[in-house]
Write a structure and sequence with these properties.
By secondary structure, this protein is mostly helical. It contains 9 helices and no strands.
C-alpha cells in the first residue's frame, strides 16, 4: 500500500489535472480519458478516484468551490463600497477570474439537468446572496442607499446584474474589457442610490 504522503500527493496531482482540463475544455470536455491524458496516466488510475462521470463532476465542483472560497478578495469600507468590492470579485476582470467564471457558467447546464447538482447550485447562490445582504443593509443604515430600499430585491438585482455581465464578458471579452465592466458596475450601483419616484 502506498504511503499516505504519496497518496495525498497523487490526489493533488489528479485534482490539478482535473482543474486544467476543466478550465480548458469545460464540463463537456471533462472526461476520465482527458484527465488521464493530462496526467500522462492510464484511465485505470483515475477510476480509483472517480468511479463514474458524476463523481468526476462532483469533484470538479468541489475544486471550483474551494478555489472560489480561497481566492484573494478586495477590501473596502462597509456599505456600498464593500458591495462594490464583492461584485468586482465576481467579474471576469483577470484571466484567472475568467477561467473561474467559465467553469461556473459551464456547470449550469449539468446542474439544470441533474436535481442533485441543481440543488447544490441553488444553495451556493443562496449563500452568495446571503453574503451580499449585509453590505446592502449597512449601506441603507449609513444613508448611502434610500431608506425605502428593498434590501432583498436590491441584493437579487445586484447578483443578477453581476451574473449577466459575467455572461456578456465571457462571450465578448473584447467588447467588455475590465474598464467597461467596472464602469458598468459603478453605473449600476449609482442607480441604486436614487430614491424611486412615488407612485401616481
Amino acid at each position: 500500500m502506498p504511503a499516505r504522503g504519496d497518496h495525498d500527493a497523487r490526489r493533488r496531482d489528479v485534482s490539478e489535472a482535473v482543474w486544467r482540463v476543466l478550465a480548458a475544455r469545460g464540463f463537456t470536455g471533462l472526461t476520465l480519458r482527458a484527465v488521464a491524458a493530462e496526467m500522462d496516466a492510464s484511465t485505470g488510475l483515475l477510476t480509483h478516484y472517480f468511479p463514474s462521470k458524476k463523481a468526476l463532476v462532483a469533484h470538479a465542483l468541489d475544486l471550483a468551490e474551494e478555489r472560489t472560497a480561497n481566492r484573494p478578495r478586495r477590501e473596502a469600507p462597509p456599505g456600498l463600497a464593500s458591495l462594490r468590492a464583492a461584485l468586482l470579485d465576481v467579474l471576469p476582470l483577470t484571466p484567472a477570474a475568467s477561467d473561474m467564471n467559465r467553469v461556473w457558467v459551464g456547470s449550469w447546464d449539468m446542474a439544470l439537468a441533474d436535481p442533485e447538482l441543481g440543488e447544490r447550485q441553488r444553495r451556493r447562490y443562496d449563500a452568495w446572496r446571503g453574503r451580499l445582504r449585509p453590505h446592502v443593509v449597512t449601506a441603507v443604515e449609513r444613508g448611502e442607499l434610500p431608506p425605502a430600499t428593498g434590501v432583498d430585491d436590491t441584493v437579487a438585482s445586484a447578483a443578477a446584474f453581476a451574473h449577466g455581465l459575467v455572461v456578456h464578458a465571457l462571450f465578448a471579452p473584447d467588447a467588455y474589457p475590465p474598464t467597461r465592466q467596472t464602469a458598468m458596475l459603478d453605473a449600476f450601483l449609482a442607480s441604486l442610490t436614487t430614491a424611486p419616484s412615488p407612485p401616481d
